[in-house]
Amino acid sequence: xxxxxxxxxxxxxxxxxxxxxxxxxxxxxxxxxxxxxxxxxxxxxxxxxxxxxxxxxxxxxxxxxxxxxxxxxxxxxxxxxxxxxxxxxxxxxxxxxxxxxxxxxxxxxxxxxxxxxxxxxxxxxxxxxxxxxxxxxxxxxxxxxxxxxxxxxxxxxxxxxxxxxxxxxxxxxxxxxxxxxxxxxxxxxxxxxxxxxxxxxxxxxxxxxxxxxxxxxxxxxxxxxxxxxxxxxxxxxxxxxxxxxxxxxxxxxxxxxxxxxxxxxxxxxxxxxxxxxxxxxxxxxxxxxxxxxxxxxxxxxxxxxxxxxxxxxxxxxxxxxxxxxxxxxxxxxxxxxxxxxxxxxxxxxxxxxxxxxxx
Length: 359
Prior knowledge:
With 359 residues, the protein is α+β, with helices and mostly antiparallel strands. It has a domain at 5-20 and 211-357: L,D-transpeptidase catalytic domain-like. The chain has 9 helices and 15 strands. The protein has helices at 37-42, 69-80, 94-106, 117-124, 139-143, 154-157, 168-175, 180-186, 338-347; strands spanning 5-9, 12-16, 132-136, 198-202, 223-229, 234-238, 244-249, 251-252, 262-271, 275-277, 292-294, 305-309, 315-317, 334-335, 348-357. Strands 7-6-5-15-9-12-13-14-8 form a 9-stranded mixed beta sheet, with helices on both faces. Strand 1 and strand 2 (12-16) form a beta hairpin. It starts with a strand and ends with a strand.
């Protein structure tokens, strides 16, 4: 998001620069089969140039927009290794390719943006656990409170009592780092609003909520330096010795409100922040001439966490639109998915260096 907003965590007020399906039909003979958790867990790259003819009835090429079982598996493995592909969606996009490239480099493998057998083998070696697991929907999951609708205009968002999720499906998808379409594709007949429903989800550390006390942070491994790459649209976290600990796709500034250059320091972290608009910045689409505040929640303009930087009004934060991260611009700040922003916030040291790499 862009400058002109403020975040309130308890009594602290932080000035901000940033903000910003139905079931599957049975496949026809020439289409890819329906996605299942068994198919994802069993997926593996096919050997190239094997010389073996394709068996009759073998799986044909999936349509471009269909989630692919092997990509889902690779994305989950990348996420668990803290090389985030953004929202796990089973699609071959820039966020996925960027995560593959960063992981390959970290493993001293040849530079690549595709899932080579060698790269897949390295990912597989990170753990033998299934990448898709079962989860039983609880009473708390469906109780809410849910927002009936999140207005497009920020002035109208200020009237809401909470910027929570709009329904259990949105909440469950974000909890398990997934796109809503993938959640539905894996569970075509599931009633996401019914307790006791068993669903297939990505086997990743679930997004948690709530604030943490300062003495609980930072958690190990500790992040001492952050690199923000404007050209490749990503954020990289390093320890004191220079080891790459985590990689996250990001939305970083725009022509109207570019991200800063040079270096900054991390001043602090605010969990479940409020969001206060400063009219002097005159954001496009915001007509209010008065200050207004938007309450906390995952659909708050800065998501579930704000990492405050020493450059006034700039920060690294979450977003209400995780599926758009890395694909759209921000209003100056660095926008991550809510789960990636919280992960970084849990590990970053106060005083950590933030370096902005220009295009």
